[in-house]
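Journal club side-thread
Mid-discussion, someone asked how the predicted structure for our own chain would compare to the paper's figures. Pasting it here so we can look after the session.
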Amino acid sequence: MGLGSTMYGLFGRGGVRDLTPDEVAAGLTAGEILLIDVREPKETEQERIPGAVLAPLSQFDPVNLPDPHGRTVVFTCGSGVRSIKAAEIAQAAGLAYDAHLAGGLKAWKAAGLPTEK
């Protein structure tokens, strides 16, 4: 699934767009994406995508997300499951955040994109 494709979520609320690692990387480089990593701190301490903001799903509250300042909010996690849930929670709270990194960090690494510790 590419840009604009939709995966209907676990809770049946709206849709969540799948973005590829290359689409997310290009958006980060262009300053057009705010990437929010919903993995837990123990996971992000080991490895993370440069520039991602941490918002662990275990404590996730859309009210506490940073202002994207016009950028597209994209959620990420380890494999793409928790990021869909985060997008659905944000949508349920009335936010128009409907995108996630399909395949999460695993897909990012498989695409040969950089990570940091």
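Post-session note: The beta strands are 6-8, 15-19, 33-37, 53-54, 72-76, 99-101.
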